[in-house]
Amino acid sequence: METVNWGILGASHFALHHMAPAIHEASGARLSALATSDRARAAPFAAFCPDLRVHESYEALLADPAIEAVYIPLPNHLHVEWTLKALDAGKHVLTEKPIALRAAEIDALIARRDATGLHAAEAYMIVHHPQWQRARALLADGAIGTLEHADASFSYDNRADLGNIRNRPETGGGSIPDIGVYTYGCLRWATGEEPVEIAASIRREGGVDVFAQVTGRFASFSFAAMTSMRLFGRQEVVFQGSRGLMRLPAPFNAGVFGEARIEIHRPGAEMVLERWPAARQYRLQVEAFGRSLRTGAPYPWTLEDARGTQAMIDRVFAAAP
């Protein structure tokens, strides 16, 4: 398969430690260029990618004819603007989550994707991980009987870093935009259902949500989802059925927060364990993107999928007092 030449807009910490190495190591991908006006911030990228070209502006990278695909890890409020600019420049684009701050904003991205014939997607990496693909298949196969209830929790504590973009309203901060995409989106993707009832309790500091407890119902099961930027770190998703329980103890940052694994608990203290200690979801995401470009293979997280989760986020904010 022909190699995809990638460029990255911005030298973010996340890009340096996760997506840039993933692009560099992925089969069928080459990290070719980075856009940053600060050469010092480009140095750590060049340390593992010595042939990296550094452009001093985002526009210059988008004008680079050697770049076929662009990864955008910019602050949330810039995602729609630069995704559209990348598409207009003739680049395929993978943009960090949330790709927009309102569901209606994604309509313009869908329209531009369709008009250009280019590939555009939100970087929702968990759907590329085998633990989530397996979880989805187990639910569909009735491994825990009829799904009755699901719990999804994701928290971390960044109260000491008030300058962080997640703590700033002007950059689209808050726990829901940052990690609600995981707790809500994983339930939608794993079950194929949409929420029909939503109730929410949100605590805010400095204009952003720092704790949110959301409850309600999907078409066939009830759910509870918690996100917070002010609690000790926790990640967990539990699906509870009529004949068993499925637990994912490191569902979102697999391999970083903990080992990727699925526990199936059944009556009589029976527990079946499946593990994926070596799977790297960011690399898998890059490789899936490249296959989609080169072979037309279905991509597991479309802009329409992203719009569905953002619509759920919009409803959560609307439901809060």
Q: What's the topology here?
A:
Layout lengths: L3 E6 L3 H13 L3 E7 L3 H10 L4 E3 L2 H5 L6 E4 L6 H10 L3 E4 L7 H14 L3 E3 L7 H11 L6 E11 L17 H17 L3 E11 L2 E11 L3 E7 L1 E12 L3 E4 L12 E6 L3 E6 L5 H15 L7 H17 L2
Explain this structure.
The structure is a single chain. The chain is of the alpha/beta class and 321 residues long. The chain folds into 2 domains: 4-123 and 283-299, NAD(P)-binding Rossmann-like Domain (Rossmann fold), CATH 3.40.50; 126-279, Dihydrodipicolinate Reductase, domain 2 (2-Layer Sandwich), CATH 3.30.360.10. It contains 9 helices and 14 strands. The protein has helices at 13-25, 39-48, 58-62, 79-88, 103-116, 130-140, 175-191, 281-295, 303-319, and strands at residues 4-9, 29-35, 53-55, 69-72, 92-95, 120-122, 147-157, 195-205, 208-218, 222-228, 230-241, 245-248, 261-266, 270-275. An 8-stranded mixed β-sheet has the order 8-9-10-7-11-12-13-14, covered by helices on one side. A hairpin with a 3-residue loop joins strand 13 and strand 14 (270-275). Helix 4 (79-88) packs parallel to helix 5 (103-116). The radius of gyration is 20 Å and the shape is globular. The model has no long low-confidence stretch (mean pLDDT 97).
Structure class:
alpha/beta
Strand order of the main beta sheet, please?
8-9-10-7-11-12-13-14
Mean pLDDT, to the nearest integer, reads 97
Quaternary organization: single chain
Q: What's the number of helices?
A: 9
CATH homologous superfamily of the largest domain?
A: Dihydrodipicolinate Reductase, domain 2
Topology pattern, helix = H, strand = E: EHEHEHEHEHEHEHEEEEEEEHH
